[in-house]
C-alpha cells in the first residue's frame, strides 16, 4: 500500500454535492487505506460555511485523513495536487437547460485550468462535475496547455449508473448483473444511453429489449433524470452526483473491474467519427491511472444519429465558449 498521501483538491466544497462527497473521500471510497490530504476551494463568502464542514470532517476522526487545507485561491489550493474534482459552479434551476449555465460557470474553469497548469502535480487527474460539465472540462483543458489532454475528463458516470438501474429494473435483474452499459455524448438531454452492447449475466441484452421501450421510456428517463430530480427535490441531485464523482475518480486512478467498462467523458481523438478535441462520453476501461476507449463497437443507424446529435450540440457549445473568449 502506497503510504504517500494522495493530495485531492475539491472545489465548491461548501456546496450540497460536497456535503456527501467529502465524507465519501475521507472514509476511503476514493483510495481505500491510502492517506489523503484534502485541499478545499471555495469562493470567499462561503469560507465560513466551509469551516463548519471541516469541523464535521474533524469530528469524524477519519483514520486516512492526514491534513485538510481550505482557501479561496486556486493557485494555493491546487499546489501539488494529484487529483482535482471540480464541482464548484452554479446548479441549474427548474426550467433551465445545463447549457444555460455556460456564460456564468464557464469563466470559473479558465482560471482553475490555468492554476492547475501552473501548480498541480504532473500526474494530476482533473474531473469536472460542475455543469455544463463537458464544456467546462473543455475550457479547463484548453487553459492548461502543459497538462496532457488525457488528464481531463467530465462526469457522465451518474448517467451511466442511472442507465444501469433502469435496464436492471426493466429486466427484473439485480443491477450488479448489468455490465458494459455505455453513455455517449454530452451530459445533457442529447446524451445517448446505449444498451446495444450491454450484457446481463454475461449475455447480450440487445434482443430482449423492444425499440419502443428504448425510444419512449429508457432514453428519455435516463437523459432527463437530472431535471426530474430538480422537479421532485427542488434542488439538483447531490448524493448520487457525489457517489458518481468518487466512483469515477476511483476507477480512473485505480482501475475498472474485469469484464466491464464505464462511461467517461474524455477528449475525442476522432474515435467513432466524433470531432477531435471535444470532451465526449465514451465507453472506457482504466488501469494504472490511464483510460482506454473501447474501440470497434458496431454502431447501428439509430445509434449513429444519436451520437452525431450529441456531438453537434457539443460543437455548438465549443463555438459559444470560443466566441466568449474562454478557450
Ligand atoms: P451548490 O450551489 O450547492 O454548490 C456549489 C458550490 O460551488 C457553492 O458552495 C459555491 O460557493 C461554490 N463555487 C462557486 N464558484 C466557485 C469557484 N469559482 N470556486 C470554488 N467554488 C465555487 O451546487 P451543487 O448542487 O453542489 O452542484 C455543483 C455543480 O455540479 C452544479 O453545476 C451542478 O449542476 C453540477 N452537477 C453535475 C452533475 C453531473 O452529473 N455532472 C450532477 C449533479 C450536479
Ligand atoms: C444531474 O444530471 O442530476 C445534474 O447534472 C444536475 C442537473 O442540472 O440536471
Automatic annotation (TrEMBL):
Ligand binding (substrate): 92, 98, 131, 162
UniProt-listed SUPFAM superfamilies: LDH C-terminal domain-like, NAD(P)-binding Rossmann-fold domains
Domain Lactate/malate dehydrogenase C-terminal: 156-323
Pfam families the record matches: Ldh_1_C, Ldh_1_N
Biological processes, Gene Ontology terms: malate metabolic process; tricarboxylic acid cycle
Annotated catalytic residues: 187 (proton acceptor)
Domain Lactate/malate dehydrogenase N-terminal: 7-152
Enzyme class, first EC level, given as a word: oxidoreductase
InterPro entries named among the record's database cross-references: L-lactate/malate_DH, Lactate/malate_DH_C, Lactate/malate_DH_N, Lactate_DH/Glyco_Ohase_4_C, Malate_DH_AS, Malate_DH_type2, NAD(P)-bd_dom_sf
Its job: Catalyzes the reversible oxidation of malate to oxaloacetate.
Protein name: Malate dehydrogenase
